[in-house]
Design brief:
single chain; 74 residues; alpha+beta; Ribosomal Protein L24e, Chain: T; two-stranded antiparallel sheet; two-stranded antiparallel ribbon; 2 helices; globular
Length: 74
């Protein structure tokens, strides 16, 4: 179920984050697309990326984790 932006936590960070679907930088203070999944908030560059994430969030989260693990292994 999609969480309306008004219901997302109000403590948004000023630091851009990456869209978990396409990897583009997203400013949480400016985007209109956000989603809460398993107590984590994800922000998106577009409704298309949000819809893709909502269809299979675990696939995108697993990809993010494996990329992060590869980055920290160096």
């Amino acid at each position: 179920m999609m969480t309306p932006m008004a219901d997302l936590p109000t403590t948004r960070g000023a630091t851009p984050t990456n869209d978990p679907v396409c990897g583009r930088p997203v400013d949480p203070n400016r985007t209109g697309q956000g989603y809460v999944h398993e107590d984590a908030v994800y922000y998106f560059c577009s409704n298309g990326c949000l819809r893709r994430f909502m269809a299979d969030p675990d696939a995108f989260i697993a990809t993010q984790r494996s990329e992060h693990d590869a980055d920290t292994a160096d």
